[in-house]
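If I may wish for something, please walk me through the protein I am sending here so I can picture the backbone:
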Amino acid sequence: MNVMAHTDNQSNIGALLQRRAWANGDSEAYVGVESGHRMSFAQLNQRANQLANALREDGIQPGQRVALLLLNGSAFFQAFFALARIGAVIVPLNWRLTVDELAFLCDDSGACRLIYDVEFMTTVKALEQRPETAAINHWLQVGESLPPADFAADYGRFCERGAIDQPAVTSGGDDYLFIMYSSGTTGLPKGIIHSHRTVMAAIQTIVATSQPKLRQRCINMLPMFHVGALTPLLVNVYSGVTSVMMRAFDPQRAWQVIDRERIDSGLVVPAMLQAMSTVAVADRGDHSSLQWLLVGAAPVAPSLIVEYSKLGIQLRQVYGLTETCGPGCMMDDSHGLLRPHSAGRSFFLTDVRIVDAEGRDCGRDEAGEVLIRGDHLMVGYWRRPEATAEALRDGWLYSGDIGSLDDEGFVTILDRKKDMIISGGENIYPAEIEAVLLAQDGIEDAAVIGQPSDRWGESPVAMVVAHRLSEQQVIDGCRQRLAAYKLPVAVTFVDHIPRNPSGKILKRVLRERYTRADVES
């Protein structure tokens, strides 16, 4: 796949900020909850211009990959739009990953630059020493609490080198915009490619479905390396909505921000809803401005839908994937209470089918694989042509998820074909954990499944065939190679791991045989 296909100035995503600044420059674009930093669309656009011009003058070329290791904040906002304007390909990195995991992503993407927050200096110093990052020739540090590392430059001073004039836009359309990594069932992360055109299509189908309005205020508590947070940020710019960003989620502070900032809408995962529901009513303040919350990543408990409805807050369940740039299905306000187990109907410019193993359309309420079609489907997987061909067939994305469709077009997601675990909104892939377990001395075989957790929705639990190892030793053996949220919260020692004749683990048998009601961590 070519990184640069052709140019189309009208569809450059970076130019959206310029257009919004021209139309509504004085409107508030960004509020940083922790810093109190506020920027109008005009101010944000000017800062993005400076960074874009500085990067271009420094030699950045269209198609080059630039990695972002940034918390939610104005720097992420600025960097994304600046890089998009000059045709660079953005690689948002999950800052919860270990140095090993981040090094792989830098190497696989071929990133030549990295912009990072000062909070990650220790990680970045270790990363800079790795052979996988040898191609990175420029490091930019955001934040002034510590001097930049000896190999890095200061982001603020670097931006000031750039002119405030609007840079020429020479990319768009089918040119790549970002590569977002999502682990596959093999345990190796896959880079999901979206172009300017696919992202524009995602924005348009979301806007046509949810109809955000100019000067509304949206709170974002999800990390920007997730498409579930990134795409809505772009929708906000497209629609003139203020983005109120929290760097880290705190349930009591979330209510305080909703009160103080007069928030209309927001983005959450079920674990956040659950945590917010435990805050005492007296501490929630005035949340009368909040109309609805978009909830994704996992099904919402019907009791939570009822609870928030009583507060005058509609929960709009959504279903989608990074491969679709977010959109798949969304529940409308009128049916949320009536169909609490459904993910809703397809977005306005999106089609959804349910097919059987032979690719034939399933009957109503019959379980099958969920297929999605729309102009917002990914270009493909970065450097993974076989995986791309498997996922994209005849214009449809084969999601790997199992669902059903009723007579009115409502989709219910029943299971995950790929055995993915969703814990607190994070995707966890058992095969990755299993590979780490099997690398430990003394472990003969291993399998990982998800078990219900009141706090996180699901948590990974390991089934291990081993001798002379304790549960804590097994977990500690994973700690150096896995991010904290991927660590098994419990280990069950078993005599054997059930497998089918081809050697695949029978996860269904494990789920039926082993349950851990005490999984709460």
